[in-house]
Amino acid sequence: MSIRAALLDYLAAQPSVTALVGTRIYWTRRPQGSGLPAIVCNRITGGHAHTLDGGAGWAQPTIQIDCIATSNTAAESLAEALRDEMQGFSGTWGSTRVTSVILRNELDLYDADKVAGDIGTHRIALDYEIQHEDTVPTP
């Protein structure tokens, strides 16, 4: 299972998160017209670890998780629920062994509504460094 699918499945299984977003957990983009609050995940750095002989068997991507809501208070509540489930985690997400999850950065953002002009969305972007086991390619 890819880390992308494993992360989405993990988040969808956390009651503290789904109590706030339901099933609105997406990879890359939120579908137009979908409700809020929501979570959108993106890999912002990637890469697989290497040794002189080839793959090391682990990867450590940084994944940005955006907590999007119509108010800053709702975005903060979602970000806190997410941090409670993610920060310091080690274990398995599906069949993927995760050895560490570290919150590296947190940003408060506001996306103005391009049509109405005065109502937009509040977004808190959390950057998590996730170290996990990885397959080792055989040449």
**Shape assignment:** elongated
Range of strand content: 35-45%
**What value does the average pLDDT take?**
91
- What is the name of the CATH class? Alpha Beta
- CATH topology name, in short, is STM4215-like
Unreliable spans: none
Number of domains: 1
Condensed summary:
With 139 residues, the chain is α+β, with helices and mostly antiparallel strands. It has helices at 3-12, 15-21, 72-86; strands at 25-27, 38-45, 48-51, 54-59, 62-69, 91-93, 96-111, 121-133.
Structural description of this entry:
- The chain has 139 residues and is α+β, with helices and mostly antiparallel strands.
- The protein has a single domain (3-133), classed as STM4215-like.
- The chain has helices spanning 3-12, 15-21, 72-86, and strands at residues 25-27, 38-45, 48-51, 54-59, 62-69, 91-93, 96-111, 121-133.
- Strands 1, 2, 3, 4, 5, 6, 7 and 8 form an eight-stranded mixed beta sheet that branches.
- β6 (91-93) and β7 form a beta hairpin.
- α2 (15-21) runs antiparallel to α3 (72-86).
- The longest helix is centred in the middle third of the chain and has 15 residues, at 72-86.
- The radius of gyration is 16 Å and the shape is elongated.
Topology:
Layout: H1 3-12, H2 15-21, E1 25-27, E2 38-45, E3 48-51, E4 54-59, E5 62-69, H3 72-86, E6 91-93, E7 96-111, E8 121-133
Parallel strand pairs: 1-2
Antiparallel strand pairs: 2-5, 3-4, 4-8, 5-8, 6-7, 7-8
Helix pairs in contact: 2-3
Please describe the structure with a list of short key phrases separated by commas or semicolons:
8 strands, alpha+beta, 3 helices, eight-stranded mixed β-sheet, 139 residues, STM4215-like
